[in-house]
Amino acid sequence: MWIVKPANSSRGRGIHLIEDINDLNVDEMSVISRYISNPLLINGHKFDLRIYVVVTSYEPLRVYVFKEGLARFASESYSTKFNKNNKFMHLTNYSINKKNEKFVQNEDKEQDDVGFKWSLSAFCNHLEQVGIDMDLLWSRIYDVILKTLACGEHYVLQAMKKNGMYRLNCFEVFGFDILLDSDLKPWLVEVNLSPSLAPESPLDMTIKTNLLTDTFNLCNIKRFDRRKESLNKLKYRSKAGGFQTAGTGAGKAKSYTSNTAFVGSIPLPTSGSNDIYIANFI
Q1: What topology does CATH give the domain 37-218?
Q2: Measured between alpha carbons, how far is 158 from 67 in angstroms, rounded to an integer?
């Protein structure tokens, strides 16, 4: 069995299952995934993990894994009997399952193991209680994450050099979707370049707010004070003697350096200066 996802699509739109690869419509560009026939189940339901990964540099490669995330469950009990039309049993996409009348939303962030969306910490606590070695499991997940990023590292570096980008000019928050099979082997489902940050439940609000806050702190992003920057510009102009007549050369205004004019007078961090301790990143 195979899972077919249209290229350049999101939120579960157009995903369907096929039994035979020959049934694939070759006229449409799609991403094809082999169906994992022995998924790990919790309370009889299939699930996947949304793990947030922040990359702050590709040269050198710096990767941070957010300690919290989401476990997202299929909204109908899993069965080995094949029914390709029952997406609510086979697919774990939240955007698909929330449309099922059987879907149970988490309404209390303090009870993060209720409904069909759990926190990652609640999921880990559950596995620990049934005797799973979480250190071994996480080492396998880290291995998948690092190998996935390594696959694209060369292409990202080429694009950065082609565009003349400074290596600390940007960062990226990735949403890794990981499926576990019954042997506790992690499988990469996909990597989301723009993972949803919509707070559709109190649990979402808590986890995603902390993710954004800690990401901004990790990348040393500070608040831009527009009023302060405007006052700085006026101060420079007054020191330079005001406006000048075109072509006279007198009263030349002080020029802005590259690390002040374009970033609100916030000095650009030097290499390695953002290696600070952020509690929720690994």
Answers
A1: D-amino Acid Aminotransferase; Chain A, domain 1 (3.30.470)
A2: 30
